[in-house]
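Lab manual, section 2.4: Encoding a predicted structure.

Procedure: take the sequence of the chain (356 residues), apply the prediction step described in section 2.3, and record the output as structure tokens. A sample record is shown.
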Amino acid sequence: MSRFLSESKKRLVPYTPGEQPKTRKFLKLNTNESPFPPSPKAQQCAAEALGTLELYSDPTCAALVKKACALFGVEEDEILFTNGSDEILNFAFMAFCDAAHPAVFPDITYGFYPVFADVNGVPYREIPLDDNFRICVEDYTPAKGTVFIANPNAPTGTALTLSQIETILKANPDNVVVMDEAYVDFGAESAVGLIHRYDNLLVTRTFSKSRSMAGARLGFGIACKELIRDLNTIKYSTNPYNVNAVTMAAGIGALQDEAYTQKNIQTIIENRTYTVEGLQKIGFEVLPSQTNFIFAKHPGIDGEKLYAALKEKGILVRHFNKERIKAFNRITIGTKEQMQILIHTVTEILTAEGIQ
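Recorded output:
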């Protein structure tokens, strides 16, 4: 680091993104991207927007907001679009956390939460998952801070029910509860319908997973109009033109093609079932998943060793060094053919190790 870096930032531990290899072609099952391309309508709308790049994008995202409101059943002042859901999450840390309102989140969850807290100078508290890697609702009643919960959780894949979410909301009336629903489309219950009953609820979503737009960087938040107004204050104090014109147009196209999205979601769910059953047959423990990934371990092989062996054979999965989960690997669900290759390759590795 340079001698000019602020003292307050020298101790930051940045978020580590999943590998994006450039020197070799891998079967990429490590960053929870969709195996399918964006909707043809999304691609067409994005291409048409290229002809307007001499102009600033609409800071209100008006056309995109209108389409989203119709789909999600909310009003135009109850939604805010951002540069990926990471930005709306960062806005929430900036807007709703301080010394009197520390951030509270699970000890095993999205790795960006502690980074957001540190970069914004926010104190935070991590609450351990239970022995089954699930969130204990009782630990958040009350949480005594601003709550951030990925639902379904990452990297474990497990989810809370709406009833459990309501329990947390009721127990924290004076603190914002953020439900990060990046993966909710793959089988969990969305809390969006609760925003009119709880003024302390912020739901964040993304186009990266179910809508095949990870490279476009488009996310959004849904909440009561007062919370959205707060978040807009942060947005217009940092980057009013935070969603570029091409991404905005692609988002509109994606929302016009909901049938394409739902078909892909169903295919991924089917492929997830196939993969879980295939891995269980060769001795894996797989946590229940309501996401487009699974979290799996095998009693006969170390998690990091399996990760390295798969990488050597051209398959990338995600391994975490955190003590409680280092035996596991997170595996993105791809096409049926990709998952067949994965299971076949894992079987080969286990056989070579004398485990099968």
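Check your result against the sample. Residues 319 and 329 are 5 Å apart (CA to CA).
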